[in-house]
Amino acid sequence: MTLEQLRIFLAVAEHLHFTRAAEALYITQPAVSAAIQCLEGEYRVKLFHRLGRRIEITDAGRLLQSEAKNIFEQVRLLERNLRELNNLQRGELYLGASLTIGNYWLPDKICLFNQRHPGIAVHCVLANAEEICEGTAAGRFDLGLVTGDLKPSLQEKLQQETVGLDRMQIVVGQNHPWFMIGQVTVDDLLQTHWIMREPGSGGQQLFEQALVRWNIAIDRLNVALVLNSSEMVKSVVESGILASAMPELMIRKELKLGTLRAIKVVSDQSTLSQPLSIIQKIIKIKHRQRYQTKILTAFEKILIQ
C-alpha cells in the first residue's frame, strides 16, 4: 500500500466516480482503476460496489477511508514539522560542555539562543572534556564545548574551532602565605601544596602543559588532593592553605570579594620579569561527517557573538 494508492482511493471515495476522480487528480481513468484493483487484490476485499454506471463504497471502503484520512493528516503534520525545523520554529539541540564552560560561559549563549528561537529545546550535558569529546565523536552531542587538546584518536572524527578564550589563574585563599605577597617565581611553585582536578579535565591538561613550558615536571609538585569538581576545588582553596590553577571564568566573584587572590608567576625575582600567563582556548567541536542542521548552524553563530 502506497500513499499514492491511498490518495487515488480517497478521490474515488469522495466523487464515487472513477472518471471524475481521475480528472480531479489529473491522471488517466485506467490509472485510477488499476490503483483500486491493486488495493482490492492485495487485501482481498471489495472497496466499492459496482452498480452499473455508479459505485457505492463498502464497509471495508469506509474503514479504509477513515484511516486513510488520518494517515494524510499525519503526513501533513509531519510536513509542517519538517518545514518548521527548517525555519527554526521547533526542534532539539543536544550540547555537551566541560564543567567550567557549561557553568560559567555557556548559559548566556543558551539564553540568547532561546530568546531568538523559543521553539527549539536545548539539552545540555556537563562532564569533563574527555567525556564530551568522546560523546561528540559517538554522536550523542550535536556540538561539544571544551578546553584542552583532543586525543589524537579523535582528531580525524572531530572538527575543532576556537570560539573564546579564558585565563587559568594560580589562586590561593586568605590563609595561604602567598595571599599577601601576590607574586611568586616558578621555583616557588614547588614550595606549596596543591589541589588538582582529575585527569581528563581540560583545565588540568592546560596547567600541566604550562608546567612543562616552565621546566617543572608535574610529579615534582606537592599534590595533596585530586578532585573531580571545580566547585569543590574552589571551596577547599578558599578555606585552606592549598594552591590551585583555576579558570578565571569561575572565580571572578571570589577575586572581586577578596576570598581568593590570583598569584602572578614570574620566571625570576627581577623587576623586569613579565608575569607568565596560561591562556586556555574555548573550543567548539563537532563531528566532521554528520549532517549539520540549520538549528546547529544558528547556535554556532550565537557562540561567536
What does this structure look like?
- By secondary structure, the protein is α/β, with parallel strands linked by helices.
- 42% of the residues lie in helices and 26% in strands.
- It has helices spanning 3-15, 18-25, 29-43, 59-86, 99-116, 129-137, 202-213, 230-239, 252-257, 294-303; strands spanning 48-51, 54-57, 91-98, 120-127, 143-146, 158-173, 183-185, 193-197, 222-227, 244-247, 260-266, 278-287.
- Strands 3, 4, 5, 6, 7, 10, 11 and 12 form an 8-stranded mixed sheet that branches. The protein has a two-stranded antiparallel sheet with strand order 1-2. Strands 8-9 form a two-stranded parallel ribbon.
- Strand 3, helix 5 and strand 4 form a beta-alpha-beta unit.
- Helix 1 (3-15) crosses helix 3 and helix 5 packs across helix 10.
- The longest helix has 28 residues, at 59-86.
Write a concise keyword list for the protein shown above.
305 residues; alpha/beta; two-stranded antiparallel ribbon; 10 helices; 12 strands
Cα gyration radius (Å): 32 Å
Which structural class fits the helix and strand makeup? alpha/beta
- End-to-end separation in angstroms reads 51 Å
What order do the SSEs take from the amino end to the carboxyl end, as H and E?
A: HHHEEHEHEHEEEEHEHEHEEH
Largest sheet: 8 strands, mixed
- The number of distinct β-strands equals 12
Overall mean pLDDT stands at 90
Portion in beta strands: 25-35%
Helix content: 40-55%
